[in-house]
What we know:
- The structure is a single chain.
- The protein has helices at 2-17, 22-60, 66-88, 91-102, 109-135, 138-146, 151-181, 193-204, 208-241.
- By secondary structure, the chain is mostly helical.
Amino acid sequence: MQELWSRLQDSFDQAFIVDDRWMLYVKGFTVTVRVAFFALILGICIGIIIAVIRTAHDSQRKSAHGAGHVLLNIGDKFCRFYLTVIRGTPMMVQLLIMYFIVFASSRNAIVTATLAFGINSGAYVAEIVRSGIQSVDSGQMEAGRSLGLNYRQTMTKIIIPQAIRNILPALGNEMITLLKDTSLVTVIGLKDITKTALNIQGITYQAFMPLVSVACVYLLCVLLLSKLLERLERRMRASDRR
């Protein structure tokens, strides 16, 4: 038992203490958080835009005429193509295409990873938001239009706020999935926390402490996010009762 404890202590020292290697984990974690945060913002923006376009197309398909109808058809076809391609190909392949083909001359790994994950997340957020919009009673749209609001105003002021409440758990799951998927950036050489652990493993020839520590960091982040989302849901439910 004492020998095992001594080995664990030595492994901990090699992974964190020697040469202040814990600072490398901190730097890697900041990269992970930056990519996940900005990709989430981009994914939500893309998802809302696509969800609104597809919902507008479905709701106005029979009544719309002229140039607006043509633009909605074009937008809907583009959105369907985007959703099919993004959801039908692996995230890692998309990341490699973005880094080695689309932005081959840039080599800015953080921006490339953010765009790749944001575009990927946007496809899933779009379907989540669209399901949330469809869950709102159709009478809400009619009520907004009867008050003199146009379609865009009704969506932004009445429909989408109610849809967000309905889809918050699903959005939370997408956010957690996105955070964990950022570990894939190791394939393009970005020094996130996972890449840091692999580098330290290569230096110390000890895999247990670096990799298990990174797994614990991700687990703690997921638990924290889950707790924050749970508290936010409770607040929203409480505000609905008032």
